[in-house]
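Title: Prediction job returns without error message
Component: structure pipeline
Severity: low
Priority: P3
Assignee: unassigned

Description:
Job completed but the reporter wants confirmation the result is attached to the right record. Sequence as submitted:
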Amino acid sequence: LCVAIAIKTTSAGPVIFKQERYGRNKKPFICYKFRSMTVDTPSDVPTRVMCERSSVMTPIGPVLRKTSIDELPQLINIVRGDMSLIGPRPERPAFCAEFEKRIHGWRYRTYVKPGLSGLAQVSGGYDLLPREKVLLDMWQTARTCPRI
């Protein structure tokens, strides 16, 4: 409740940010987050790049990102069954399509349910490149789903 009030009083727009992501077997779902960026932020730019531009962050956005509090609404996704607590982070469909062309093994990330947190998230968070994420996610996926 405190986060919602802080977002609403420091920036215009909705408290919750909704975005389509791919789940298990590329099933699309709506992912929920506390909004940490302005409402006019382009949606086709990687999050890692956008975080470097303070002009698109809301006044409390950097704190939400640094503490990962912006991810808390994804507990709704977990209750709905779209996500689990642990697993590869879900990605936007447009980025999935591009990464599958350029990064060997990227498609295997969608063989398991995406998670709120995972090895790649804990090891590097927003700073990891997609190629680095897939290596950590594949190691984690192989341990939880040995048939891959």
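Comment from assignee: result matches the submitted record. The first strand starts at residue 16 and ends at 22.
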